[in-house]
Specification:
CATH class of the largest domain in chain B: Alpha Beta
Oligomer: heterodimer
Strand content of chain A: 15-25%
CATH topology of chain A: Rossmann fold
Radius of gyration of chain B: 27 Å
CATH architecture of chain A: 3-Layer(aba) Sandwich
Helix content of chain A: 25-40%
CATH topology of the largest domain in chain B: Pyruvate-ferredoxin Oxidoreductase, domain 3
Shape of chain A: globular
Number of strands of chain B: 24
């Protein structure tokens, strides 16, 4: 898709020649102020700014408030709102059928960390090419505010119930199991989330971003560890995230003493500028240690915890032909009459 | 009756007069311990008889265990071409100390028994011919490597049986080459064992039993294959592109065989795969991958058995309601729950027909033979894409895991049918489309695939309520319209699924309906009913659900219709009841068999005869 002609003054277009309207979806039906809506906006911005062809996107989700959101962005892309906790397997099937699609999976903390933990783990383990977003608010919204498995120890429900089980850290799990781009963000941090999503689009492999996304209706009160206030107060980025897309061909200077440069699969650059700590996001063991320590201290870290641009994705390991399996002609999928004769001879 | 023969002491001049010869019409049972290499020996024995041109079938009755538990293999030679399990055993090979006594006691008078000499079985009965063989003594010289002897020992009985039944030992040697393929050393070692057994028996025994194999010419051009391998071939020639699975007995070998064939025959000109196979984390994921791949345009499938079907229920409902293609093989085993994992049953008919919550109904195919495992695999993929719905192929353990003789499979002449898929050009012409609109009046809507380069190609798939445009809807009329269209689609399927086969057609007022592997007992039972009881029957073999008009007509045209099947609750009988007019229901009778062993003709004949007597008395 090339659109090299200079557009007449009018709506701004991206390098694919599309306006931001081409990336919009239906109107959201979630609560006003829901963190998920902000994530939807960032997804639209990221895909627009990266110039992703909308028809090449496949949007996938499970069940829950978060899983409704694929209807609210990129209407020009096919979407699949599947069953509770099972989006990973549906996504895997889609990726097998058509490796040219860009998969965006949206899940929630209930959909991922409880009913879907089995499929989540195996998707991470396969390093399936997908951007997997957990819109994480620590509660079940659609069923009116029960704790989920990512709720922090000691967090309080509106009804006063205290959570007495430790949370599942989806980022630590993802890193341990084989995902190759693992990050946490906060729906209220526009810049960080946008750059993370853009880097995710540039990555080939499993991109797992756990986005703390407060539930304004059931988990935004005093005593909740996933409220807007708590998240704003405790958000502690491990680095400042910059992103230079490959197609821009701009060389932005950076100080390699303070900034790590990660070259992404499509030629883009992810720039991770050190803040308070000296953190190497390419070190898997260090990433796990960082997250374990954060748990001990009760910190809410955000940023890129782990990135690996060399591990093969699941699809690459399958050694598939260039044409996607979905579009393979009969000449390639039905062996010849001679082949059947040969097999029959062997069975005589 | 023949008497016991003592090893090496019988004198040919002193033997008793031989009973009438029973040629090519008897059953052999080999009782061994599983994991002892007996499967190779049994396959060689089966092949030897097959190569003699005699119709033959083999059934493995094995435990859910890797090594150490009793296992039986029954071979039936039948000049009449009957290949169902025969209830009575005529010739026993007793190798397992644990079951030997019981095995001998269950034989019919006049039967013969080859046994491992230390078992000392000959005193058990006077009405049986015994042939004791010192297997351990015989195996030592042919197999110097002591640790292999346990396995090679079993090959000895092939030679002994060859000698006693008149099977040409050269046929066993040929079968061995086939069995061991490129493993030349193994083939030679085993050939020596066969020969040693053969030589020993020829030198030692005088034939006292009446059972003989004689050459026929019934198997010209035929193949031997198991149903799972046949289904795997069907999938490959159907053009499958995505295969997902989770290992489960008795289904695993379907996908394992498919993988082997795909690696050989489905590598593209660029040296890369035109297929993807994924071993999933469980059956839920396997089903999800099938539907995801089907949604995105692949020809996708999985294979499982009852417990997997239960786990897939949620996804099957999604597939039905969102209208996604996918082929689901169910190699049925005995349920409920874990049940008897290595025994056969037709027990998943009802659960597959209506799998998942809410109003759902699914297309089912019932292969009876390995030929149909092949052809119905192809049908299943075409139906799944034409009707945009999950399609089940209900095979079973007996069909899937046992070797069957068959005619070579027919190459599919019909091109692959991909169903109503709109591409870029179609959309340019039409401007757009409504995903769930019944444009053609057959209930089947049009779909697009993700990645279709047209701004109006996309739609949103959801398992929640939706209208014609695939938009979220809770409106009563949208819901009802959609559900009614799905029913219409199912009605359309009646005309497209494989039609039943009139296996026996005449003017009888008594009809019999059967399906799947139950067919083989019926093929024989219909003859028994006529020849032994003078009861003529018409026999219709049902091959698919929804039932075609022929099924309704068959019931209409008969006074009584027996539905014969292998489950306790008469599942197909119940399914038929739901489909036919109320005044027809009373015509139905049920014959069921559900002990885990493949159904036999005698059981069917006896059940029909006793019910017929009641019907006659009632007049």
């Amino acid at each position: 898709m090339s659109a090299t002609t200079t557009p007449a003054p009018g709506p701004k277009t991206n390098h694919a020649g599309l306006t931001v309207l081409d990336y919009r979806g239906s109107k959201t039906t979630l609560c006003a102020g829901c963190g998920h809506n902000a994530i939807t906006e960032r997804l639209i911005d990221a895909m627009y700014e990266m110039g992703v062809q909308p028809e090449n996107i496949a949007k996938l989700s499970g069940i829950g408030c978060s899983s409704k959101t694929p209807a609210y962005f990129v209407s020009r892309a096919h979407g699949f709102n599947s069953v509770h906790g099972r989006m990973p397997s549906v996504a895997t099937g889609v990726a097998l059928a058509n490796q040219k699609l860009m998969l965006i999976g949206v899940s929630g903390d209930g959909d991922t960390a409880s009913i879907g933990i089995g499929q989540f783990i195996h998707l991470m383990r396969r390093n399936l090419p997908i951007i997997y977003i957990i819109e994480d608010n620590g509660v079940y919204g659609l069923t009116k505010g029960q704790f989920s498995a990512t709720a922090d120890l000691g967090s309080k429900l509106k009804t006063g119930v205290i959570n007495d089980l430790p949370p599942i850290d989806t980022c630590a799990l993802a890193i341990q199991l084989g995902a190759t781009f693992v990050a946490r963000s906060f729906s209220g941090d526009k810049k960080q989330l946008l750059n993370l999503l853009k880097a995710g689009i540039a990555h080939r492999g499993t991109v797992m971003i756990d986005v703390i996304s407060p539930c304004v209706t059931f988990n935004d009160h005093e005593g909740s560890t996933k409220s807007y206030k708590y998240s704003k107060d405790h958000d502690e980025p491990v680095q400042e995230i910059g992103f230079v897309p490959g197609f821009e061909n701009i060389d932005v200077d950076y100080d390699d003493g303070t900034t790590a440069d990660v070259r992404m699969h499509d030629g883009s650059h992810l720039r991770l500028r050190k803040l308070d700590r000296d953190y190497d996001a390419t070190d898997k063991v260090g990433a796990l240690q960082l997250l374990a320590e954060a748990h001990e201290k009760g910190e809410m870290l955000t940023g890129v915890f782990y990135v690996n641009t060399t591990a093969p994705s699941f699809i690459e390991q399958l050694n598939l032909t260039e044409t996607s399996l979905a579009r393979m002609p009969q000449e390639l999928t039905r062996p010849s009459r001679q082949a059947l004769d040969e097999i029959m001879e062997e069975l005589r | 009756m023949a008497t016991t023969i003592e090893l090496g002491v019988q004198e040919k001049s002193a033997r008793t007069p031989q009973p009438a010869r029973k040629v090519n019409d008897f059953s052999i049972q080999v009782a061994t311990v599983n994991g002892s290499g007996s499967q190779s020996a049994n396959t060689v024995l089966l092949r030897s008889i097959f190569q003699m041109g005699v119709p033959v079938s083999g059934k493995n009755l094995f435990p859910s265990n890797i090594a150490g538990l009793p296992t039986w293999y029954t071979i039936r030679a039948s000049k009449h071409g009957y290949i169902a399990r025969k209830k009575e055993i005529d010739f026993l090979v007793a190798m397992n100390a644990e079951t030997a006594k019981e095995d001998v006691m269950s034989l019919m008078p006049g039967a013969a028994c080859v046994y491992d000499e230390p078992l000392k079985l000959s005193g058990l009965r006077q009405d049986i011919t015994f042939y004791p063989v010192p297997f351990d003594k015989l195996v030592a010289p042919v197999c110097p490597e002591a640790k292999l002897r346990r396995l090679v020992k079993n090959m000895l009985y092939v030679g002994v049986v060859d000698a006693l039944l008149g099977i040409d030992v050269a046929e066993s040697e040929k079968a061995l080459v086939k069995q061991f393929g490129k493993k030349k050393k193994a083939a030679e070692l085993n050939a020596a064992a066969v020969r040693a057994g053969y030589d020993y028996a020829i030198a030692t025994f005088t034939k006292q039993d009446p059972f003989w194999v004689e050459r026929m010419n019934e198997n010209q051009g035929k193949i031997i294959v198991d149903g799972n391998a046949a289904a795997a071939l069907g999938c490959m020639f159907a053009g499958v592109t995505v295969v997902t699975w989770y290992p489960i007995t008795p289904s695993s070998s379907l996908v394992e065989t498919l993988i082997d064939y795909l690696k050989e025959y489905r590598i593209g000109p660029d040296g890369k795969a035109t297929f993807a196979v994924v071993q999933a984390e469980d059956e839920l994921a396997a089903a999800g991958m099938v539907l995801g791949a089907g949604w995105a345009g692949a020809r996708s499938m999985t294979s499982t058995s009852g417990p997997g079907i239960s786990l897939m229920a949620e996804f099957i409902g999604l597939g039905y309601y969102t209208e996604l293609p996918g082929v689901f093989f169910d190699i049925q085993r005995v349920g409920p729950s874990t049940g008897l994992p290595t025994r056969t049953m037709q027990g998943d008919v009802l659960s597959c027909a209506f799998l998942s919550h809410g109003d759902t109904k699914h297309i089912l195919l019932f292969p009876a033979s390995v030929e149909e495992c092949f052809s119905m695999a192809i049908d299943a993929f075409d139906l799944a894409e034409q009707f945009q719905t999950p399609v089940f192929v209900l095979s079973d353990l007996d069909l899937g895991m046992n070797n069957w003789m068959a005619h070579p499979f027919t190459y599919p002449e019909k091109p692959i049918a991909r169903g109503k898929v709109l591409n870029e050009e179609d959309l340019k012409r039409l401007g757009g489309f409504a995903r769930y609109k019944d444009v053609d009046g057959d209930g089947i809507p049009y779909r697009t695939l993700p990645g279709t380069a047209h701004p109006n190609a996309a739609y949103f798939t959801r398992g929640s309520g939706h209208n014609e445009k695939a938009q979220y809807s809770e409106r009563p009329d949208d819901y009802v319209n959609n559900m009614d269209r799905l029913s219409r689609k199912f009605e359309t399927a009646r005309k497209f699924v494989p039609a039943p086969v009139k296996e026996v057609s005449g003017t009888s007022k008594i009809g019999i309906i059967a399906y799947g592997t139950t067919h083989w007992a019926l093929a024989e039972a219909c003859d028994q009913l006529l020849q032994e009881n003078n009861i003529a029957v018409d026999y219709l073999r049902v091959r698919a659900y929804p039932f075609t008009q022929e099924v309704h007509d068959f019931i209409k045209n008969h006074d009584r219709v027996y539905v014969v099947e292998q489950n306790r609750d008469a599942q197909l009988f119940q399914l038929i009841k739901l489909d036919i007019a109320a005044d027809q229901v009373t015509k139905l009778r049920s014959v069921v068999h559900y002990n885990g062993l493949p159904i036999d003709a005698r059981s069917v004949t006896d059940a029909v005869v006793s019910q017929e007597i009641i019907s006659q008395e009632a007049k």
